[in-house]
Structure of Nuclease SbcCD subunit C:
Amino acid sequence: MRPLSLSMSAFGPFASTQVTDFSALGSNPLFLINGPTGAGKTTILDAICFALYGKTTGDEREGSQMRCDLSVDTLLTEVTFSFALGEKQYRIRRVPEQQRAKKSGDGYTVQKPEAQLYRVDSDGTEHLLVASKVSEATAEIEQLTGLDADQFRQVMVLPQGKFRELLMADSKDREKIFSQLFQTQIYRKIEDKLKLQASKIRNDVRDHRNKCDGMLHSVSLDSDEALNAELAEVTPRLTQASESKDKAKLALIDANKQLESAKLLVNDFDALDKLQQTATHLAEQKEAIAERQLQFENGQKAQQLKPVLDMSLARESEVAQAQAGITQAQFSKQQTEQALTISQAKFDTLAEQEQKLQDVQSNEQYLNSLKPQLLGLDGLEKELHTAMLSLNRAKDKGIKASATLKGIELERQNAELRVPQLEQVASELLNVQQTLTAQGELIERYQQWQVAGNQVAKTEQALKLAEEKGKQFRLEAKEKGDAYDQLQLIWHRGQASILAQKLNPGEPCPVCGSAEHPNPAHSEQVLPTEDDLESSKLVCETAKGVLNQVIADYKGLKAQLQEQAKLRDEYQQRLGEWASHPLESLQSHLEQVQLQVNHANAAAQELTQLRLQLQTWLTKERELQHQLEADREYFHTLQNNSASLQGKRDQALAAIPDQYRSLDALNTAINQAQVLLNGLQQTIGEIRQAHTQAREQDAAQTEALAAAQSNSIRATQKSDEAQVDLNGQLAASGFENKQALTQALLSSEALKLIADEIAKYRQDCIANQTTLAQLAEKLAEQVKPQLAEFEGRVASTQAEQQEAEHSWQALQGRVTQLTQTQKQLHEADNQAKKLEEEYAVIGTLADVANGNTGNKISLQRFVLSVLLDDVLLEASHRLQVMSKGRYRLLRKEDRAKGNKASGLELEVEDAYTSKVRPVATLSGGESFMAALSMALGLSDVVQAYAGGIKLDTLFIDEGFGSLDQDSLDLAIRTLMDLQSTGRMIGVISHVSEMKEQIGTRVDIIKSSMGSETRLVLP
């Protein structure tokens, strides 16, 4: 990872927004971060770490604690960091939780933490990867860099006072870091995969054994031999049961056949009874069918006369319609005669209406001629009104501008008097802030001392309870042990009595071999059984286990108490004389100092805002003065224009009559004239049209009346002819009159239904007679059987068959069950043998890969130990240069005690003594050189191996002050040599020689208004 730029707003000691462009330092820079104590040098590293992971490099302060107290309320605390990973560039912005001023209204609101991550193309185009969630941004950064926050702090930053952590890390911590850097997780996956496969095979073997036991248990047997014996005994019984089942089945089939034959004969007798009943019912319907036959014949004759009847009825309807037409024509003739009389009277008034039309047309033309003149006058009125409005607005604007100018001048003068007062109060801000910080740290140490004291008291109480508990459980364990020993003694002494109880006369004694037993042993007390003895032993062992656990807890509490008491004493020693003061007095003093800080901070913020406001007021005064002069000239121009428009308006007004000087009044008069004109024209046209229509309609109704009278005569003649024809047909067909014909008349559907009914009756009679004769002949010599006798025989035979079937099924099921179980057991045995052979290979590999054999080193740790050797080779080369050939870093190869992880610890070889000793024995300066060499060696090896992690940047925070002059020169020369390898090295140091030899710097400038950054290039 290579930093490109860093932007900090209201972060740490930086009150405003500070941007550091790392790309301006060059391609492979060695630069110094320089500044006085408390200026914010380490804050640069905190900001980078916070932007990436939401944590500071020391992990001692939360992001919400990094807001600068000197910042204005409107400036949000945030950090934006741009960096490169290989050829790709990214930008991340992170905002911590904080109190910010409300956007509207007074007061403050809580700003929730947020983060945005972008990928930046070479042309500057940004692609949003994370929108706002801080957890998602942190996870994405860990995915991109391959490091979490703790790993980043150990391999890319040597934090102030914590460089020894890189040296002192144990195998477990170093394995976690190296596996990320060298991407060796594949070996861990191999370990886990082998372990998982071995565990699965073990479980499969156990499952197969349990499965075999379950198979035998499912058939209520204990062994394969018992299964084979039962199968040999059951098979002959199954053959005999099968033969009995087949015989019973044949007997049941014969009984069912006899029952079915009896049922068929009973059905024939029942059918004969039903046919005889049907014959009686058909005889009863004979007269009704004869009546339906007569109705059918009359309907057929009436159907033949229906056309003649329809014609007669149609002619009668035509006569009625013709008579109605005459009546309607006579009424319409009367209406048209009346309309003609009315239209003639209106037609006689046309001359008077035409004269009125000419008068209205003349007046309408005169009014239209006035409209252009009035429109011109209206335009002049509007121009004059607009000019007067502009004149009044210009006057009001000038008055307001003068008042505003006077108000601004007064506010500026008052503010200039306020500035010296605020400057005096704000000058004390830095001092009271330092006092506040010191007092806060003092209270924090005091509270830590109190917490440590409370923990000591709680642990002492817990230790006392544990001691009492130990005494109680020790007594219980002794009682249980004594009881077990006593029971065991009784059991051993009673063995002779137990053996005597099993002796029988004439049988040899298992001890002496004698067949005579004249004086067998016996016991006076109840002897315990082996189960009683085993139960007592279990109770005794359980009590001892509980006692051992209580003793272990007591020792743990005692060690914990020693650590807590040591921590409490350290806190008390750091407090010094302040430990005798109550916490309330310290907090009261803190509140007073906080009030002073708030007062000074408010004054500083007010001073900054007031100075900005003064500049704004001066600019506004000049703008208002210039605007006021321009407004005065514009006002005089408007006055002259208004006077000119007033004269033109008066001249145009004199040429128009008073009643028409309003455009609305003139338009109303014109509209009224047009309405009257249109009304007269419409009335004249309607009179002429109505007179013509009345004459035409009267003539047409005269012709219609004559036609209706002629049509009525023709219809009457045709009706008489049709009636004569109908009477002749009725007489020939035997119907008395038209009413008799109408009653006999049926539809075609009704005639068909009657014919079908008669035909069906005849068919039913024939079918009944035929079937009745056949069935009577068939049953002439038969007797109706009793079905109960046959059904009883079937029931008894069926019971015998079911009993035989059940016996066979039970034996068949048992044989099938035993046979399948025998086959499954054989298959399971074969599978278990294969699994055991497979485990012999996989299990051994899993034990070796997971470090369960030999020196207890896992596969991944073995690979990492080889990589660590490469790192130590590079690191030792630099350490030997800086230590003048004295020290060389080595990997500790001895196995750690107990189950502690080993294989990745460090040792140092001292050329002066020719001995190897722990790295913890190095001094402060020696530890710094070793840690620096380790970090540089790690960077070299990681860069050399193919992988996704780029360690091309290193920040070093302090540590050079612990070196002598020669070691310092060697360390600086080592860092300068790294520029040729493409590394960026950032150093934080107070050592003056560093500033003299490193020309590229990021200077931190400290002031009472907050710190600022500045790049210094050679």
